[in-house]
């Protein structure tokens, strides 16, 4: 062929190839690495969020999602950061990806990004920033895994380069990526031994559903390699494969080499529980549905009262910043409240979030002993948060905020509707008083309570965690955790309690034929950087000290009096709650006083909680030593945010909150951080089968001599004229 | 005059007199004793509920009460009992009055009725009764005070006579009547010494507001007479006279002789706190009001789902009976829940109510040491409950129930809108699960939570207690107590914290100039006659027992296991809660099992609570010994309903729950009653001044292996089509 013709043919060939690829791409909607589009909206591209996924996509019963009418689908492509604490935008994540792809830090240029988040500016920078001025330099904090090491990097997005790089020599690894998990669960499929076991258990490979179970750390034999245990279920006949475990089958996998290290099968005689009755999906219900109650909704004919600009929220007397976070789930920052007397905004909480979520199971057998999850540091509470269901997860006037995260190669993806914000009226009373007839004053003053709720829900495998931050107009903040979702159950030969011998240890409760709900705990540790009217605060344990009166002036023999103990160093604030040694826990600003001289403050008010009973030297408890006390106080330190340490996966417990606190540093009149752990003991019961009604617990941060007086006294009640006129739509 | 004319004139005279009287009566709306009308609607005839009242009626800011549209004003005159547990009707109270007036039991025929309530039929009668059949014989239980003794009488309303009469030889007296209280506060006015002291304190007699403070019991010197301590305040310049105490002035009064026994004044140098800034009434607010949030309401375009017939409530899966009670406030009875599998109603709670409310103050001085209230037995939680404010105390679709009580001479009176019942949607989640991307199942199932709330609010002098019983469709019952209203404060010379010397004991917190909020506790003890699927139940303490593994099969060193301890006698169930010795508290029916053999049951789940620290031999703690433990279990006994004893006023503690429980009676597989105490320690803070934002705590009764599976799995989510279309009314 002539050279010109050759070039023409080549050109035409390439053009057609390009055209072909383009059409294929448009048809399949492949994710294109490094492109400018958002492909990975996980509510639409579920399977692609995992990149590789051999398990057939199940159409299931996907409830038609109603898009909230007042909200436009967020345009992430053109989004820019407006506040110093705003999370990385789509463009910024892409910039990180691009910078990472060009770096020569890693041998052979191969890396996996385990975390790509904003490197928050210094507190001073954030606090001195004013709306309208330039943001502090935008930087990304990146944790990369390469060459068998974790690298902690800071990427300057303005300079366009990596400005800090710390290779980790710590024990432990970063949280798994979605890619780690999905590839791990496929590794056993390559093992002939595994396939044989599955077949012997009468499970079809096409029904196999496997989950990645963090293996914890139990000694020297479990170091130096990233390990994971894969456990499998049958999804034949039900979406609720959790109820059909291939009990006793544990595959130990080398996460990086992607190979099977060991297979344990000590459940040969344990049958697969039945599928019947386990499917919770509406579409799968065979029996008549329970007739619904009359429709009921929270209505706001003039719309909600909150104003949201990007991540900044204004509502009632509150202003705060909220952002999704892959590890914490959701972070509340720079929360300030308006003083009704002065009209000024006053600082309360600089940063609050769920720092770790420890879930130890109480079964010491081979298939269970290691189930001692640290869900934030191993899986990511934000990474496992799925889109909320409008109307059912949140009421109709809720505002939705998307999460924007990065895959292992740095491609941004959207977790839409991950956080909802809504106003709540629940028929509660803010304050009231009526005079009784003795004085004959015809007085009845009542004010209704309206609050603001900020919510997300993480589904960490089987369990659903609903995390709420609720703001009240009287200055109180309530943090609440609700537990729902599906139990992790254990297969058993037992079909009835009668069959259980007295010496047999179930480690839980028989819930249905062949199903044991295994006992376990949940501990959610909150990081609370309280900055009451400023950074320098003190922590005061106000003991209700019992006093006995001997030969007193009156016949009264006993009382309690408040005795204040100001914590000077960290060991003064390692606190176990005790019903018979009660105390209040105040965070005060010793330099600010009320009108009559009390130091301003807030107090932490625990609700119901539980304490870990595990031995302190039991490896899971070593790793979760931050649950040795319910309350801790540390001096503010940017590197001390994750209660289980920076690298929690397979950690040995040498970098936990307990370790830091034992340094016994000064905490009086300093910038301090409060840590509170909300716990649950869970002995399952049949009502938890096959899906659990929500149980929840909470704690409060309550203004205590923060205001000179009740801050909501000068409010109005609800009047009939304010009520809407509503008619059924159908 | 001729005889005919004379008679005519007389007739005309009498006719005009009658006419005149009739017009006067219609104009003034006097209460007429013994008549057939309801005169004493205390929301309209406040002053007449007290009969005598020297304190001027204050118009105050009485919020225009909107009558709930769907409810007709209850016609109490024609009301008849429909259920065996229905409270006495107006006609029945009048019948009691009439019978009492005719009896010759009391010398000189003089008596005061301290309690007139239904004598409940035996449990067997109540449970075997079916709608449509005759009610068991209606009887009244009456406590009368006459000749310095308490008489416990049963009045058969069918026979029209007293059929039982027990003169009390117990220590202690019945609850005060409104007449006791109003006459007691007037007694000091007759004392010259008192008037002089008041004048020296620069309080005008017309501004004087005095309150009746139960004096407790502190030894032999306080027996044999009904005593009360009167303490006074100035209401000059404010409705919130509680903020202006005449500190240190205590008048000991003989309640029956109506005379002053002793006057103590150890507050001569303590100034009267200022009125400024203390008035909480909307009408009294001088400074700009806080702008309200956008209107928000709970809307039900098809109306609420509950059906209420008299005192019987049906909602969702629940049926129960609710009635106001002068002593307990409100009683929930025969609560049954529908089993979704069988469609049958199953028994859960035979009777539940607040049995006592112990409020000890922590100040041992002369003016305070005796403030150790037992509000149910001394004042009556129901007697001090005022009408609820529609729209502010309860949401718009609430149903209201009146209380019907008797005055000291047996005249019935109505406390309208004393209880409200409403459906609540608060944006909460009943259960949920989403699948995360690993399995690629596009599943999101969420169900919203809708509950039913039954509420009343007692204003026992200064404090407001909001008591809620909340029913959930998943079978859970939550009992909640909210505290609001006004603190009992102590006058002081101090105006600033700076002035307080380190040796000075405030017994509380300085809240404002000259005002100390005195430390105190609240303990609300609940009576819970659980009848799980029948009367005979057992109480099982399920301990989370910590176990250490030595040389176990796996590297795990510790875990907890559930160890069940069935309580055999009462001493097995005298329980103090402990965070580090956790347990669950189950009430089971050992004769009924689930499909797979677990005994059916419910568990009591404590929320946040507090424990009394007072010495057991300190007189108030002796009288309130039922707070020595958080949980007790007793065998069902009709005479054991009031935790502080039948006669609590000035009781010595010899007839309390603690005394009964020490009898150590068998409680295994018997009809048992659970007692739970919800407590609060209160160290006041400035936010509590001059009126307190509501704080609350609760506990749950949760089905535990009661159902074979999650009872609300087969429910539907909320759909957009169910939402109403609402428009602002104005």
From TrEMBL, chains A, B:
| Positions of the Copper amine oxidase catalytic domain | 297-712
Cofactor mode of binding and number, as noted:
Contains 1 topaquinone per subunit.
Q: How is it modified after translation?
A: Topaquinone (TPQ) is generated by copper-dependent autoxidation of a specific tyrosyl residue.
Q: Which GO terms describe its molecular function?
A: copper ion binding; primary methylamine oxidase activity; quinone binding
The Copper amine oxidase N3-terminal domain sits at 174-272
- Name the cofactor(s): Cu cation
Q: What is its EC number?
A: 1.4.3.-
* Matching InterPro entries: Cu_Am_Ox_Cu-bd, Cu_Am_ox_TPQ-bd, Cu_amine_oxidase, Cu_amine_oxidase_C, Cu_amine_oxidase_C_sf, Cu_amine_oxidase_N-reg, Cu_amine_oxidase_N2, Cu_amine_oxidase_N3
Q: Which residues form a coiled coil?
A: none
UniProt KW keywords: Copper, Disulfide bond, Metal-binding, Oxidoreductase, TPQ
Pfam families the UniProt entry points to: Cu_amine_oxid, Cu_amine_oxidN2, Cu_amine_oxidN3
List the active-site residues.
375, 463
GO biological process assignments: amine metabolic process
Where would I find the Copper amine oxidase N2-terminal domain in this sequence?
83-166
Q: Which family does it belong to?
A: Belongs to the copper/topaquinone oxidase family.
Q: Report what the protein is called.
A: Amine oxidase
The source organism is: Picea sitchensis
Its ancestry begins with: Eukaryota, Viridiplantae, Streptophyta, Embryophyta, Tracheophyta
